[in-house]
Amino acid sequence: PVPPEFNSPINPPGMTGIDYVVSQGKFLALIPWQGLDRASPGVGWKQGIDVKLIERDVALGTSARLIRLRPGRKTPTFRIAANTHIAVLSGSVQIAPSNGPTTVLREFDYAFVPRNFAITLSNPKQFNLGAAASGPASSQAR
């Protein structure tokens, strides 16, 4: 722990570095998803495209977000004003530059998208209503 008489630029007195880092952490499961159709109405976002804001640094002008594309969803073509890093955490996503070829990114793939580059993202997995209707929740309701 930082001794009480030491003036640390980061750690408060009596706290270890690990304690400080953990105290600053965000628990992703507790951050709610927000539908982009509601967050930015009138832009063309469809239901089933959601975002979690993990962090925003106003001084640097940066942010970190998770984007979730439900099965069969496709974004409108959009531009992000900053350099963007895309990492696929689960499933796969199709990424296409405006008027360009589509590339499939699979789980754990990474792509760098330069600022002001127009892209479209889509989840190629199709929604299967039959599988959803026969799941555990609906079988209990019968």
Features:
142 residues, 4-stranded antiparallel beta sheet, disordered C terminus
Major sheet details? 4 strands, antiparallel
Output the number of helix runs: 4
Helix content: 10-25%
Average pLDDT number: 82
Rg over C-alpha atoms, rounded to the nearest angstrom: 20 Å
Helix and strand sequence = HEHEEEEEEEEHH
Secondary-structure content class: alpha+beta
SSE topology sketch:
Elements: H1 17-23, E1 34-35, H2 36-39, E2 49-57, E3 62-69, E4 78-79, E5 84-87, E6 92-97, E7 103-106, E8 110-113, E9 118-122, H3 129-133, H4 136-141
Folded structure, characterized:
The structure is a single chain. The protein has 142 residues and is α+β, with helices and mostly antiparallel strands. 15% of the residues lie in helices and 31% in strands. The radius of gyration is 20 Å and the shape is elongated. A hairpin with a 5-residue loop joins strand 6 (92-97) and strand 7. The protein is built from 4 helices and 9 strands, in the order αβαββββββββαα. Mean pLDDT is 82; it is low at 135-142. The longest helix has 7 residues, at 17-23. The strands form 3 sheets. A 4-stranded antiparallel beta sheet has the order 4-9-6-7, with no helix packed on it.
Summarize this, please?
With 142 residues, this protein is of the alpha+beta class. The chain is built from four helices and nine strands.
